[in-house]
Amino acid sequence: MSSKRFKKLPEKTSELQTESIDKLLPVVKQNCTTKFDESVDLSFQINNKQKKNEINIRTVVNLPGGTGKKVKVAVVCEDSKTSEAKTAGADVVGGDDFIEKIKSGDLNFEKLICTPSMMIKLSKLGKVLGPKGLMPNPKLGSVTEDLKTAISDAKSGQVEIRNDKDGNIGVSIGKKSFSNDKLIKNFNAIVDTLEKEKSNNTVKGELIKSAFITSTMGVSYKIKLGKSI
Q: Is 216 strand, coil or helix?
């Protein structure tokens, strides 16, 4: 049964003409009628079913406007790098003892970063970290000697872009309280990243089939992309 709040939201928005992101943001914000600061979320449908191969995107984007979320970052490293990790702002830092805690299911963090030499030990915990999407990955910058940069990126607005088996990608570009300019910059950063992914993969036709924007408790609108990708 729909709430009174939801019943007041626009209906059949899927039948409306597509609009550019700058025109849709004020409308999406107007639909944010809850008492909390709702997230502004994107949903992409990509053309991942190719004749010769299936496109699987997994990368990270540093959003220039941030995400508005506090991320608890954990670091697995050698004792010699513990001080560096803590100074860089890591919330949890440890070595072998910390790996044992993770093994027992103690996952009190949202992002895990690891040095290359410790990754050999951590890689054995795939069954614990994998399902949660927490396993560090060198391609995503979370297996590195440069802990300062990795921690800074994780805390300042880095998001992961990953499609599921049906070609869907969901990602947040910030909060209702963000300025439209900041949200648009975050949107452009994601689109630019997808452009690069098309260049890196053999894609026949367009990479993005459709894109929608909504808020946490709102309704969705189809986005008219500013450029063909």
A: coil
Assign 107 to helix, strand or coil.
Answer: coil
Q: What is the pLDDT of residues 70-82, one digit of tens each?
A: 999 999 999 999 9
Domains and CATH numbers, the chain: 14-67+158-222 (3.30.190.20), 73-155 (3.40.50.790)
> Are the C-beta atoms of residues 174 and 67 closer than 8 Å to each other?
yes
What's the pLDDT tens digit per position in 144-164? 999 999 999 999 989 999 999
What's this model's pTM, rounded to 2 decimal places?
0.83
State how far the alpha carbon of 183 is from the alpha carbons of 29, 38, 136, 139, 226, in Å. 11, 13, 28, 26, 15
Q: For residue 191, what are the contacts with CB-CB under 8 A and spacing of at least 6?
A: 225, 226, 227, 229
